[in-house]
User: Fold these one by one.
Assistant:
Number 1:
Amino acid sequence: MDGASAPVPDDAEAAVPPQQDWAAAAASGRAQRLVVSKDEGAATDVVPGNDVLIPPVLLQSLIDAARAGLPDEACGIVAGDRPAREGGTPTAFYALRNAAESPYRYLVDPEEQLRVTLAIDDADEAVWGIFHSHVASAAEPSATDVGLAQYPDALYLICSLAGDLPVVRAWSIRDGAVLEAAITVGSEVT
Ligand SMILES: [Zn+2]
C-alpha cells in the first residue's frame, strides 16, 4: 500500500481502497467524499433510498477506463439486473469507444452501443448506468451531458481526473432535472 502522502501516478494499478480508506482520504483532504449526504429530500426520487452500492472492482474499472481514455474522455455502459432507478444492482461494465475522440465531450460509438445493449438485453439485464469521464473538470454533468441524456432510469456515472485522485459521482438526469445519488463503495452481502 502506498504511503499516506504518496501521490497516485496516472498509471497506478492500485486497487480501489476499501471504504474506510476513502473516508480517511476524504478526511485528510486527499479526496472528495464518495458518500454524499442524504439530506436532500428531493433526491429520494433517484433510486430507492437515494443510495447506490458500487462494488470496488466496478469502481476501479471505471477509473481504469477513464485513465485509459486519456487524453480524451472515456465512456461506457454499466449493466445491472435492473435499471438503477428500480433499485437494480450493477453487474458489469462495458468500456466503449468515444467516437467523438475529444477531451471535452463523448459520443458512445453507435455500433458498440447497439452491440452491448443487445447483449445486455439477451442476458435479461438492463442498462444500469452510463459512464463517461471528465479529464479536467469536476465529476458533474455539463450542460451538454444533461441535454444529451437519454436514459432517465439509469444513473450517469462521471469520473473526474481533474484532481490528484480520481473522483466518481452518480447522477440521475430526467427531463433536464439533475439529482445526485450517493455512492457507497462495497458489495451486497449475499
Ligand atoms: Zn460530461
Number 2:
Amino acid sequence: MEQDSAVIALTGIHKAYGSGEGRVAALDGVTLAFPAGTFTAIMGPSGSGKSTLLQCAAGLDRVDEGRVRLAGVDPRGMSETALTKLRRERIGFVFQSFNLLPTLTARQNVELPLRLAKKPPRPQEVDQVLAELGLTARAGHLPSELSGGQQQRVAIARALVTRPQVLFADEPTGALDSRTSREVLALLRRIVADQGQTIIMVTHDPVAASYAGRVVFLADGRVVDELADPTPETVAARMATLEPADDEPTDAGPAAPAGVNPPDDEPTDLSPANPTDAELAQAAPC
Ligand SMILES: Nc1ncnc2c1ncn2[C@@H]1O[C@H](COP(=O)(O)OP(=O)(O)OP(=O)(O)O)[C@@H](O)[C@H]1O
Ligand SMILES: [Mg+2]
C-alpha cells in the first residue's frame, strides 16, 4: 500500500512490554497504511495488540523498532511538547468509557480541546459539530443527564472539533446497547462519507466492524489478514478461526458462535477499559 500518501503509516513496528521472562511482544512487526478518507476496523482476540497499535499509531506511546508516520510527520525525534501539540491538533481519540468531564456541560466538553490548544472556541464551529452529532438540544446538559449514546456522541464531537486528520476509536461502542451502537456507528460512517474523515476503530464486534470499509485482523501482535467490504458474517467467520484460545478449550464445539466475544481465559483484559494516564491526558490534559 502507498505508505507515503497514507495519513498514518506504520512500517515494521515492534513494541514489547516488560523484560526477561515477563516480556510480552505486544506488536511484532506490523506494517499498515491508512489512506485518507477511509474507515478501518482493527479486530483480533483479547491481548492481540489492538490497543497498543492504536496508542503507537496515535503517538501516545513510542515504538521500540520500526517507523511511524503520523499526519505526515515522524514522531520519533519529536519532544513531548511537540508531540502533545501534534496530537491535540491533528488526532482525535474516542474510548469505550466516554471520559467526559462530569462538571462540564456537553458544549463545554466539546470546547475543551480548543481551549487547551489556546484557540478561543468559535461558537459557529462548536454549534456545527454539535449539530453534526445530533446534540444541539442537549448541549447545555451535564454528562450525568445524558444517555450513554449521547455521552459517546459528545465524546466524538469533542474529538472532531479540532477537525483532526485521524479519529482513533478504541471500542467506541463497547459500553452501548446494540441499537445505540448502530446509531453511533452509522454516524461514524457518515462522517467518513460526507467529510472524508479518516477513522481507525478497534472493536470486538463483527457488526461494528462491518460499518468500516476494511477490517484488519491481528493475532499475537501481527497482522494476519484483511477484509474489504466486510459483512458481519464474513468478519465473524474470520474471527472464529483466530479466537480459539491456545490453552485447550474444555468442550470444543464444531464452530465458534457467530457473536464473537473475547476468549474467557484472561479476565483481567476483559474488564471495562480503565482510562490510562495517556487517555486521561487526552481527555483533560490540563
Ligand atoms: N502497559 C502494559 N504493560 C505490560 N503489558 C502490557 C501493557 N499494555 C499491554 N500489555 C500486554 O500487551 C499485549 C497486547 O495488549 P493490548 O492491550 O494491545 O491488547 P488488545 O488486543 O487491545 O486486547 P483487548 O481486546 O483485551 O483490549 C497483552 O498481552 C497485554 O497484556
Ligand atoms: Mg484493547
